Amino acid sequence: MGGPTTSVTHHLHLPPRYPPMKASMMPSLLVCLLACVVFVVGAPYPITKTYGVSQLQLQQGKTYTLYQYEGTAVVTYFWLTGTWNNGAGDSASQMNFTVYVDGASRPTYQFTPNQLIGVGFNDLTAPWGSDMMGRDSSLGGIYSHMRIPFFKSIRYDVALPHDAPASSILFWQIRVTENYPIVVSGVTLPPQTRLVQYNFQSVNLTRLEFIDFVSTSNAGAIYMHFFQSESSTANFMEGCYRAYYGGSQNQSLVSTGFEDYYQSAYYFAAGPYRQPGVGATVVQMGDSLTKISGYKVHDTDPFFFDKGGFRLQWRNGDTQDPNTGQKCMDSNGPAVGNPQASTITSMTWVYEW
């Protein structure tokens, strides 16, 4: 397609030590060559289809079906931008998206675009981004390349938040690609892989309370974790991330504190940052209120687990061993600092098979 094809024959001159090819070998050689040609020609190469609508008008109290697709494919690109019609600025980051996969009657995924790219508290900092996600405008330009596989269908619905100040204009793009593998950390995942969202919105945790961000009996790989928390003290950041494998109650420490998981230290001492695989998108610390949000993409830092029971857990503040001083090893030890109740929102995206 797209122009003439030129056939070039290359003559291979073998050194004298190679014996001449016998006539009896020719049929086998031809069969092999034909098989190779059939394999290449019949291979299911990826096919990308793109969709977009400009100036979709959204009204308060209504839900709109933004996009739907029938078939087997992978969502490979999601972009949107929007402004309030009263001129109040960005609206895209606050819109409520609901996604239904393979004819599900209940939402498969729910998110705001800001949460999708790991940003809490409706922070509008721009521009920033990586190969996989980011925000390129103070008035939207939010994008995500998170791979979402589906086998029968997918549907995106969108609605304005209940406290929206006005109607809104929305511009969007969604691309899906057929015959496209899911690859995490260089590993091609099984063809039956699904993307699962573990979603906690505005959950109130008491002092030293545990929460399981992920709990599954499947095998899988954590792709991305988003978290935001606000509390009257900063000591909730003493809480460690823990993993439990194979249904065991024996913990494996994932991090020695909250900010450690996000590759920072000492309560995000350098302030907010946005890097390709990890970031602290909001760091606000005051005398009576601390707000933190961050994201971690487990691509260069792979996080795989096998079947038989897996949990990813965090604690709102933590304890230390009174004898050794080690954190997170004695759950009944004294608290580190003075952690208080926290309100958290968390979104963990996990490929499972």
Notes on the protein architecture:
The protein has 353 residues and is mainly beta. The protein has three helices and 24 strands. Strand 4 (96-101) and strand 5 form a beta hairpin. The two termini are 38 Å apart. 33% of the residues are buried. Mean pLDDT is 88; it is low at 1-19 and 33-40.
Count the beta strands: 24
What is the rounded Rg? 26 Å
| pLDDT averaged residue by residue | 88
Structural class: mainly beta
Q: Can you summarize the main beta sheet?
A: 7 strands, antiparallel
Question: What share of residues is helical?
Answer: under 10%
- End-to-end separation in angstroms reads 38 Å
| Total helical segments | 3
Q: Which stretches are low in confidence, meaning pLDDT under 50 for 5 or more residues running? A: 1-19, 33-40
Strand content: 35-45%
Strand-and-helix sequence, N→C? Answer: HEEEEEHEEEEEEEEEEEEEHEEEEEE
Overall morphology: globular
Summarize the SSE layout with pairings.
Elements: H1 26-42, E1 47-58, E2 63-70, E3 73-84, E4 96-101, E5 109-111, H2 113-116, E6 128-129, E7 133-137, E8 140-144, E9 148-150, E10 153-159, E11 168-178, E12 183-184, E13 187-188, E14 194-205, E15 210-216, E16 220-231, E17 241-245, E18 252-253, H3 258-261, E19 273-274, E20 278-285, E21 290-297, E22 304-305, E23 310-315, E24 342-352
Antiparallel strand pairs: 1-11, 2-10, 3-8, 3-9, 3-11, 4-5, 4-10, 6-7, 7-8, 12-13, 14-24, 15-23, 16-21, 16-22, 16-24, 17-18, 17-23, 19-20, 20-21
